[in-house]
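Handout, section B. The chain below has 111 residues.
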Amino acid sequence: MNVWLPPAQLAQMEQLVSMNTGLPLATTSSADPRGFGLGLAQQFNPELGRFWFYEWETLGYRVAHLWWPDEDLLLVLAANSEPAPEQDKLGALAVAIHAILNSTGRMPCCP
């Protein structure tokens, strides 16, 4: 991973705490699918696998950054809306785009 942070700071940033239990979490899994670090989160989703993400929101605008290190894939989604939680489709859009990339063989690193 090519980053601009010193290794020690990156390691701190990637230390996760379970969003279920509040305890330290080495990595997410189907049993404990969401972890949060210093500004970053990691999630395990059966459709998407394991990925890191960051979501930024302000005054009705949102940008979500999703990164799959094993697939060398970064997906950035931006929306000029902040819908009610039951109407939020940004996650469904990420699943759909990821599925299209997988089905067409267009993942950057993977056949």
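Note. The chain has one domain: 7-103. Compare this with the example in section A.
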